[in-house]
């Protein structure tokens, strides 16, 4: 019995060992087979890598995510990129439940679904089930092929590759970006925008369920045509969601009751100039996220379009507006023309990027630089009289002159002559360097060819550059590049002006009593609290108005893209009303006291006649702001006390003044150029009597200023016209006569202020003017007869 028992146990152990050996052998073979398959997969993956290169429709979005405009792909598809944060939890649940319940558990291929589908197809003899996972559908959408078993195997291989390279969220994103919706619409975002006019992130459960079933039958479930059928199919799936307890019952109930009114709409088309520019500027971005404010843009487009219609009868057909948020330097509105689709008036030309003559809009920068250079303050006086700079004689817009004016008046009235004189005093290099720092590329490129006329519009600028420049005035003189994209985080700046200089500028440019206030706004209560400056180009081809406060800077251009001039076109009369309308629309109420005095500035009273520090004889005084340690601190000298004879016919200096027999009298002190202007305008004044003829002292001050001819200039004279050369000079108030010499030979004695005409000798000549006090000035010219 014992022997039989041992033998039985031995046989049992042997049998178990044999079974175990077979199991181990089977496991080893399975592991070996799996290893071979894995190695084969790696080899195939190396030789046939998956390449995912989805081309998307470029879209431009606004600050709130609204799609402003979309562009077709090169293969004419509407395929907009759905971002991960737009795939809501509800969308994930619905899509995964409907398309691939085990999406997050399998490696791209569901082997149980494959076996089930294979068995069903063998039993029925038909392909009743494809076992496609979401990942396999992505593979098929990336590489469309006929539905065969071989292609199905390739799909499975590609799905394994995709699952190895991408996360489940990224794969779901690819699926939602590629799923077809009929016609040339692909992806849930394109369908959402083009059928429901909203982005996927704000879809309701009803809407996303409806969109999820359309790809299965894109022909028979077309929105706008088969909406009732879509509702029926949608509700079937909502009931499936209810049974699966995917969403609460009350949400399912609401979704089933929600109407589905989708229809095919044209793509969004807001800010077409802006979006076209962004597409060209950022071609590599599928989604160009900007700071544009949708409502501000729509409102601005409407205002510009309606305004141009109002002035159409004046033969003015276009306008543009550019709006910057000063707090962030974000571009919030961009209107390139009155109507982008107006082919008759070149509506697709972008007026914001067009290079045009700026008129007088650069003058504020000039005077701000002069404030910082210590040349003047707002109440400093400057002569507005005829002047010649090496052959260049600027004129005011009304061809009139005003004599002695304050800098404030010169800027407020946009006088040309004082501006050119100030630029000559400041220096071209300083002015052009500041413009270069502010991104004026056209000016920077031609700086060697520019002259003093640059400050009057003798250069090329864009509305974008001008608006950014004025935004620097709102930033206390710090220039910042504008921000186009949400990803723009550059906060660097270039210091152009001091806070004190920009405060003084803003004080001048905010005064509502200026002459460039539009006529119908003179007594209006809706003049916005802004600083603004106008400009009109030569020939009245361009009208500009740029304004700012602490919140916004708005630049406006009005004119014709053809370059045709219009007599009624002016910055004050045509552009500023549009500027005011835009400010009142986007910021109807703002802080009127936004221009607050900075720490680097103070105020004082100055003489109202000279703008200098007042003396005892200064009876009139005005308030003036100044930059301590920088602004001029000259004592006023607008009056002088002169010793004269009792009959007031002779004046004496300290050298020749008699001990008795004289009296002292006060006279106004005028420069020679102001005296010349007063004589030209027949303005009476009391000159200082001629100096004592018996005095041997020669005065070197107030020598004649030769206005014509101009020093170091070539003159071309037509022999047939017998043209003569004019000799003209400005002299002091004590001068009665002057003496003209050509090559040190006396030509003529003339009265002070009298113009003399001569036959100029050919070649190089020296022209001299001496007054009756012995003061002399020389110029040198070259004359060519032809």
What can you tell me about this protein's structure?
With 786 residues, this protein is α+β, with helices and mostly antiparallel strands. It is 34% helix and 17% strand. The longest helix is centred in the N-terminal third of the chain and has 46 residues, at 2-47. 39% of the residues are buried.
Write a brief caption for the model.
This protein is α+β, with helices and mostly antiparallel strands and 786 residues long.
- Termini separation (Å)? 149 Å
What is the rounded Rg? 42 Å
What value does the average pLDDT take? 88
Strand residue percentage: 15-25%
Overall SS class: alpha+beta
Strand order of the largest sheet: 7-6-14-13-12
Describe the sheet with the most strands: 5 strands, antiparallel
Number of helical runs? 21
Number of strand elements: 27
Classify the helix fraction into a percent range.
25-40%
Could you say which overall geometry the principal axes of the C-alpha atoms support? elongated
The parts where pLDDT drops under 50 for at least 5 residues are: none
Summary keywords:
786 residues; alpha+beta; five-stranded antiparallel β-sheet; five-stranded mixed β-sheet; 27 strands; 34% helix; 17% strand
Write the layout of secondary structure elements.
Blueprint: H1 2-47, E1 59-61, E2 67-70, E3 78-79, H2 89-99, H3 111-124, H4 134-142, H5 149-165, H6 168-178, E4 185-186, H7 188-196, H8 205-213, H9 227-243, H10 249-257, H11 272-281, E5 287-289, H12 294-310, E6 318-325, E7 330-335, H13 363-372, E8 381-384, E9 403-406, H14 407-412, H15 416-426, H16 428-437, H17 441-445, H18 463-474, E10 478-479, E11 494-495, H19 499-509, E12 531-536, E13 542-548, E14 552-559, H20 571-586, E15 602-607, E16 621-626, E17 639-644, E18 651-652, E19 663-668, H21 672-680, E20 705-708, E21 713-717, E22 725-730, E23 737-742, E24 745-751, E25 756-758, E26 763-771, E27 776-785
Helix pairs in contact: 2-8, 4-5, 4-6, 8-9, 9-10, 12-20, 13-15, 13-19
């Amino acid at each position: 019995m014992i022997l039989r028992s041992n033998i039985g146990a031995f046989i049992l152990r042997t049998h178990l060992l044999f079974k175990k050996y077979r199991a181990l052998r089977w496991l080893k073979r399975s592991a070996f087979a799996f290893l071979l398959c894995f190695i084969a997969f790696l080899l195939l993956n190396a030789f046939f890598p998956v390449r995912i290169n989805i081309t998307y429709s470029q879209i431009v979005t606004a600050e709130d995510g609204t799609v402003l405009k979309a562009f077709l792909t090169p293969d004419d598809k509407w395929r907009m990129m759905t971002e991960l944060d737009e795939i809501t939890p509800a969308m994930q649940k619905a899509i995964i439940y409907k398309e691939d319940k085990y999406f997050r558990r399998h490696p791209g291929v569901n082997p149980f679904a494959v076996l089930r589908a294979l068995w069903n197809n063998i039993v029925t003899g038909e392909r009743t089930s494809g076992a496609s996972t979401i990942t396999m559908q992505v593979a098929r959408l990336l590489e469309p092929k006929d539905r065969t078993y071989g292609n199905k195997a390739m799909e499975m291989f590609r799905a394994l590759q995709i699952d190895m390279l991408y996360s489940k969220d990224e794969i779901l994103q690819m699926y939602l970006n590629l799923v077809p919706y009929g016609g040339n619409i692909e992806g849930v975002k394109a369908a959402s925008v083009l059928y429901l006019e909203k982005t996927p992130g704000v879809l309701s459960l009803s809407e996303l369920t409806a969109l999820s079933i359309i790809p299965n039958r894109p022909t028979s479930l077309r929105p706008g045509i088969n909406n009732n059928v879509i509702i029926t199919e949608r509700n079937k799936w909502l009931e499936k969601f209810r049974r699966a307890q995917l969403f609460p019952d009350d949400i399912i109930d609401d979704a089933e009751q929600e109407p589905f009114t989708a229809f095919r709409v044209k793509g969004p088309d807001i800010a077409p100039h802006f979006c076209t520019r962004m597409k060209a500027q950022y071609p590599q971005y599928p989604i160009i996220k900007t700071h544009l404010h949708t409502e501000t843009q729509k409102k601005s487009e409407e205002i510009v379009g309606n305004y141009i219609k109002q002035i159409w009868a004046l033969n003015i057909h276009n306008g543009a507006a550019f709006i910057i948020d000063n707090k962030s330097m974000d571009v919030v509105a961009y209107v390139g023309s009155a109507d982008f689709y107006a082919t008759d008036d070149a509506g697709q030309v972008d007026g914001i990027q067009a290079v045009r003559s700026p008129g007088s809009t650069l003058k504020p920068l000039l005077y701000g630089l002069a404030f910082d250079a210590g040349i003047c303050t707002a109440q400093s006086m400057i002569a507005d009289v005829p002047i010649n700079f090496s052959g260049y004689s600027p004129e005011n817009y009304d061809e009139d002159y005003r004599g002695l004016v304050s800098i404030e008046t010169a800027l407020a009235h946009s006088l040309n002559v004082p501006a050119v004189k100030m630029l000559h005093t400041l220096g071209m290099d300083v002015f052009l360097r500041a413009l270069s720092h502010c991104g004026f590329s056209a000016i920077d490129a031609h700086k060697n060819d520019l002259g003093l006329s640059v400050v009057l519009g003798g250069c090329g600028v864009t509305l974008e550059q001008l608006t950014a420049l004025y935004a620097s005035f709102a930033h206390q003189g710090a220039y910042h590049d504008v921000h186009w994209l949400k990803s723009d985080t550059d906060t660097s700046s270039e210091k152009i002006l001091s806070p004190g200089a920009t405060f003084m500028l803003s004080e001048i440019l905010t005064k509502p009593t200026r002459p460039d206030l539009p006529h119908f706004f003179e007594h209006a209560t809706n003049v916005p609290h802004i600083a603004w400056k106008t400009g009109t180009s030569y020939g009245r081809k361009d009208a500009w108005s740029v304004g700012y406060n602490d919140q916004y800077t708005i630049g406006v251009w009005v004119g014709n893209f053809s370059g045709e001039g219009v007599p009624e076109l002016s910055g004050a009369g045509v552009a500023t009303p549009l500027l005011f309308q835009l400010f009142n629309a986007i910021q109807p109420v703002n802080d009127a006291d936004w221009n607050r005095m900075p720490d680097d500035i103070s105020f004082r009273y100055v003489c109202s006649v000279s703008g200098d520090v007042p003396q005892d004889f200064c009876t009139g005084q005005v308030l003036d702001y100044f930059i301590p340690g920088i602004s001029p601190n000259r004592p006023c000298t607008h009056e002088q006390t002169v010793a004269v004879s009792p009959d007031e016919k002779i004046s004496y200096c300290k050298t020749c003044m008699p001990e008795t027999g004289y009296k002292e009298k006060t006279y106004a002190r005028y420069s020679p150029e102001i005296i010349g202007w007063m004589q030209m305008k027949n303005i009476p004044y009391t000159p200082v009597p001629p100096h004592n003829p018996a005095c041997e002292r020669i005065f070197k001050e107030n020598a004649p200023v030769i206005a014509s001819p101009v020093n170091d200039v070539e003159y071309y004279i037509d022999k047939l016209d017998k043209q003569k050369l004019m000799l003209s000079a400005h002299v002091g108030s004590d001068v009665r006569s002057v003496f003209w010499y050509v090559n040190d030979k006396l030509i003529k004695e003339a009265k002070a202020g009298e113009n003399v005409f001569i036959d100029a000798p050919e070649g190089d000549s020296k022209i001299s003017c001496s007054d009756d006090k012995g003061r002399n000035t020389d110029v040198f010219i070259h004359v060519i007869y032809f």
